[in-house]
Design goal:
With about 160 residues, the protein is mainly alpha-helical. It is about 80% helix and about 0% strand. It is built from 7 helices and no strands.
Length: about 160
């Protein structure tokens, strides 16, 4: 699930980077932002960010417990309370994602994205994305190894021919 949402987020991030986005934030309608929110939800684009606060809390706990192992209970309580207090700020990230999507895509495009990723084919695409990415990565490594081997062999043969002249 994390890889699937990460792959989707990455793909959409690339789309955002290559789309013509104004240097300054554009004013967008509430309908446009709502369409962006629906597209984000349909594509699971920000799901991978759900663990940011949990990972930060875990890291801080490990660090503090490492230096003060006698205060495990207090550390766990304080870190958990502070993490819960910060959880509401997750909506800030969603709002920023909505603005980014709204600036990158028209409302009509966002509606099309939502429709596609809400369809059976779109859901299948999201489900197979991590598998395809993993298999494509393997295929690329095998291909690169073969290309490197063949290039090395071909260059070596050509250099030997040149040297023998």
């Amino acid at each position: 699930m994390i890889f699937r949402t990460s792959a989707t987020a990455f793909a959409l991030s690339v789309a955002l980077l290559i789309s013509p986005i104004a240097a300054t934030a554009q004013e967008v309608s509430q309908d446009h932002l709502t369409a962006a929110a629906a597209a984000i939800d349909a594509t699971n684009a920000t799901d991978s960010f759900d663990n940011i606060l949990l990972q930060a809390a875990s890291s801080i706990k490990n660090q503090l417990i490492g230096t003060s192992p006698d205060k495990v209970d207090e550390i766990n309580t304080v870190v958990d309370e502070e993490a819960i207090a910060l959880a509401a700020r997750r909506s800030d990230l969603e709002a920023e994602a909505q603005r980014l999507f709204a600036n990158a895509f028209s409302k009509e495009e966002l509606d099309q994205i939502t429709e596609f990723f809400g369809s059976e084919l779109g859901k299948k695409y999201l489900g197979y994305t991590p598998i395809l990415a993993r298999e494509l990565s393997k295929a690329a490594r095998v291909w690169a190894t073969g290309i490197n081997r063949d290039l090395t062999d071909n260059v070596t043969k050509r250099m030997l021919e040149i040297e023998s002249q």
